[in-house]
Write a structure and sequence with these properties.
The chain has 123 residues and is an alpha+beta fold. Helices cover 47% and strands 20% of the residues. The protein contains four helices and four strands. The protein has helices at 4-15, 26-43, 79-92, 109-122; strands at 48-52, 55-60, 66-73, 98-102. Strands 1-2-3-4 form a four-stranded mixed sheet, sandwiched between helices. Strand 1 and strand 2 form a beta hairpin. Helix 3 runs parallel beside helix 4. The longest helix is centred in the first third of the chain and has 18 residues, at 26-43.
């Protein structure tokens, strides 16, 4: 089982002061985020799979169930693209815990949060 509050605290501690979104390339940032989560999975002895059904990373449990799914999109994409592609893939996947890390364009944060919340409630 994945305890999301602890995972979030570890994520914040790991990246605190290490990187700047302005000074780190998008591919480097994505690789570091995926590496962090892979290291966490290894600590819990969970196998990691990449690009599973358009999801960036999943972890499987003892009975091959998906215990964790991660979608990371660093492009600063249009909010509709984030909602209709990246967030939709994550919402549709059956997993015990899901994490989406998105970087919407400035001013689109509330739209993204409200629409994701609405879509999750609907499903």
């Amino acid at each position: 089982m994945v305890y999301l509050p602890r995972l979030f605290a570890d994520f914040c501690q790991y990246f605190d002061g290490k990187l700047s979104l302005r000074m780190t390339s998008t591919s480097e940032w994505t690789n570091l985020v995926l590496k962090f989560f892979a290291e966490q999975a290894a600590k819990m002895k969970m196998p990691v799979f990449y690009d599973y059904m358009l999801i960036d990373q999943i972890w499987r449990g003892e009975h091959q169930e998906i215990v964790f799914a991660l979608e990371h999109e660093h492009k600063g994409a249009d909010v509709n693209d984030l909602l209709n592609k990246e967030a939709a893939h994550l919402i549709d996947l059956r997993a015990q815990a899901k994490v989406g890390i998105f970087y919407p364009n400035l001013g689109d944060e509330k739209t993204l949060i409200n629409n994701i919340s609405s879509r999750i409630s609907y499903r």
